[in-house]
Amino acid sequence: MAPSKRPAPGLPTRKQVLDFIQNSPVPAGKREIAREFGLKGQENIQLKALLKDMAEEGLIDGKRTAFHKMGGLPKVTVLRVIDIDEGEAIAVPDTWQPEDATPPPRIRLVEKGKGSALKKGDRVLSRTEETGTGWRAFPMKKLALSSEQVLGVVEIDGGGKPWLAPVDKRIRNSSPISDLGGAEAGELVLAEPVGRSARAAVKVTEVLGEPLAPKAFSLIAIHKHGIPNVFTEETLDEAQRVSKMPLSPDKREDLRHLPIVAIDPSDARDHDDAIWAEPDGEGGFRALVAIADVSFYVRPGGDIDREARRRGNSVYFPDRVVPMLPEVLSADVCSLRSGEDRAAMACHLRIDAEGRVKEWRFTRAIVRIHEVIAYEDAQARIDQGKAEPFLQDLWACWKALAHARHQRDPLELELPERRVKLDDKGRIAEIAIRERLDAHRVVEDFMIAANVAAAKALEAKVAPVVYRVHETPSREKLVALKDYLATFGKKLAMGQVITPGLFNRMIKDIADESEKVLIMEAVLRSQTQAYYGPRNEGHFGLALGSYAHFTSPIRRYADLLVHRALVDAYHLEQPKPQGDIPATSGLSERDREDLGKVSEAISQAERRAMEAERETIDRYVAAWLSSRVGEVFDTRITGVQKFGFFATIIGLGGDGLVPISTLGDERFGYDEKAKVLSGERSGTSYAVGQILRLRLAEANPLTGALKFELEAGGGRIEPRGKPVALKKRGNHLVGKRGRPSNIRHQGRGKKR
Asked: Biased-composition ranges for Basic residues (predicted)?
């Protein structure tokens, strides 16, 4: 029955909301709750935030049109992780069958240590506990990998039996399918095990489509890593509303008269940053780095902000971008497009003749970008002597910054970067090494100067800072590097102070270019992984004492937090917007109280994105090479293990394995310290860095895996059992003779 007494107007408590939901004769959504408690204007915004918090605490299910009270849970139960929220795992019961058919509660897993060791899809035996604010659980045991969802391709064997071929190359066995769930042969699907044994069958839970269709490789990575890629209606609605906020000149510096330019990749869809410089008449320069003022549009506590925190960063694939912000903001209103008035956070710099940044200040501004120029076009104008004065001034200022950079002596590792180019149908047109131009260095050094200024400006106000931290290499990694360098006859003294310049001098003294690449890769492997954090540990690679990310708030949440901190520290708040848009554009109290928590979450999101991007490139390379199986390539050995060695195609990339079983009949010994395989009879050896010609034996686009064999002599990688090969028939993938292709069946022979 409906509540007998109407509560007094004002924001209700959690208990009042739950009482109303429980007693309401109809499904109660936000609208019904607001009507019941007589909420209007700002109170509606507060109600939305309250309901979001209650959903995260597991008190209600949080659906848009109806909220429901939760039921009970066993004291010990199996939970499945469905999300990682700011470093904490959120789970639901793995089996949920309440009598009243209510949705499962969202349960926060309390783990030991900093951040979550769990990931989306993990199943955990946990002890549950109901608190005054909802459910929480304490993990007791993580269940085996075989219990997780698997992404794979449906294939049918000669007897008509369906199998799931996993797309993750770390999972070596395929699984029988007990329930196709409407999937057909050749389709990409998500499946979960039926039973608990390692050899259990699986049932299809979601059909994703054609695995070799254009754009499928990035889709595989998105699903495998649980990357959020769909915005809710609430988020899109809010984005539309904030995109229409008037850009008021109040409290904004008008910089529309300056010829500020954005220098970006030719295919860039969003433009975070733009730059300008001119001589100051004293041998130095006045410079400006204008950055999209995302904090004006994305307010803390709103739907866009919640989604941006969850994503952490944009993810870039060859065929698509999974943006941190809705497209109306990332590609339009926030993007610094030429000829249009845009809100910007302006970093004003004074740079002396030696390239040292002597002064800085931050303002909120209105800018009108003079021109968006591709890197290649800007470089061509400079090289051909056709550059306009504003470009000449930028290059002159950069030469001063480059001089200061040289004096600082940061780590210089010029390693090639692969770039996948697609045609208009999404097919691979070319895989090439990305060219490195001075134009790239110009933008990079301006951005570094602005990032340093942002960190120091916040330090000057004793304000919260999300630092970009890159710590000195650990002793363990330095010892491994020392042992590796010894195989080249080079020494690394462990007693000296380790600086980036030490590595630079080591690399500079190497005359052989192929050897230089190997040493640079080894130095890169010795580095610690950069991360975000509220404590300043310096940036080893850039040889900087204070460093923060400020220049890319469209695609990185860390930069947005730095902008908000600057808004607070330097009183840059804008007039409050109207309607239900949150008022403040500074840091929320939640972030001020625990900046470490959100820093850890966005660091994890960054690592997730990097892994997904790398795996997708590997799949594209394998697809590019799949029609060239049997060809011989010039390769370089990149790693040696006791089971074989890994090699990459020179100039293209794509690591592949040469199994030790294919090296011939003799026995090979493995020297772990030197990373060398040596034949006991012939003395033939295989070591990191060695150049040799190898035949491509296998290229699997679904996993990104390659296999090579020796050009002549040794063994061959042959199929065991019936021969199989990847083949497209109509809209499906099947193997020759109807067998599944390039998979390993349990008890049915090994993969090629």
From this structure: 725-739
Instruction: Kindly list the distances between the CA atom of residue 327 and the CA atoms of 229, 322, 332, 359, 750, in Å, as whole numbers in the listed order.
Output: 12, 10, 7, 36, 46
Q: Is 592 exposed, middle or buried (0-12, 13-18, 19+ CB in 10 A)?
A: middle
Whole-angstrom distance, CA of residue 450 vs CA of residue 548: 9
The pTM (predicted TM-score) of the whole model is: 0.75
Q: Which residue has the tokens 């000296």?
A: 496
What strand order describes the sheet that includes 676-679? 668-671, 676-679, 685-687
pLDDT of residue 502: 93
Buried-exposed string 324-352: b where 16+ CB fall within 10 A, e elsewhere: bbbbbbbbebbbbbbeeebbbbbbbbbbb
Bridge partners (DSSP) of residue 272 are: none
Nearest by Cα to 418 from 702, 698, 648: 648
Mean pLDDT by 10 residues, the chain (752 residues): 49 79 70 85 81 63 47 70 80 62 76 71 81 82 61 89 84 85 88 71 83 81 87 91 88 95 90 97 96 96 92 94 96 95 97 96 97 96 96 97 96 83 82 88 98 98 96 92 84 89 91 82 91 96 97 97 97 80 86 90 93 91 90 90 91 86 90 86 87 92 91 53 35 35 32 30
User: What would the two tokens of residue 148 be?
Assistant: 């997780």
CB 115 within 8 Å of CB 87: yes
Alpha carbons 196 and 215: distance in angstroms, whole number: 34
Contact residues for 394 (Cβ-Cβ < 8 A; gap 6+): 261, 275, 276, 277, 442, 446
Amino acid (1-letter code) at residue 277: A
Instruction: Please state, as a whole number, how many other Cβ atoms lie within 10 Å of the Cβ of residue 511.
Output: 7
Span between the terminal Cα atoms of the chain, in Å: 67
User: How far is CA 630 from its chain centroid?
Assistant: 35
Tell me the C-alpha distance between 395 and 276, whole Å: 10
* Contact call for residues 494 and 573 (beta carbons, < 8 A): no
The dihedrals phi and psi of 375, each to the nearest 5 degrees, come to -50, -50
Contact 177, 165 (CB under 8 A): no
At 143, list the tokens.
């269940």
Give which of 620, 610, 265, 222 is closest to 420, Cα–Cα.
620
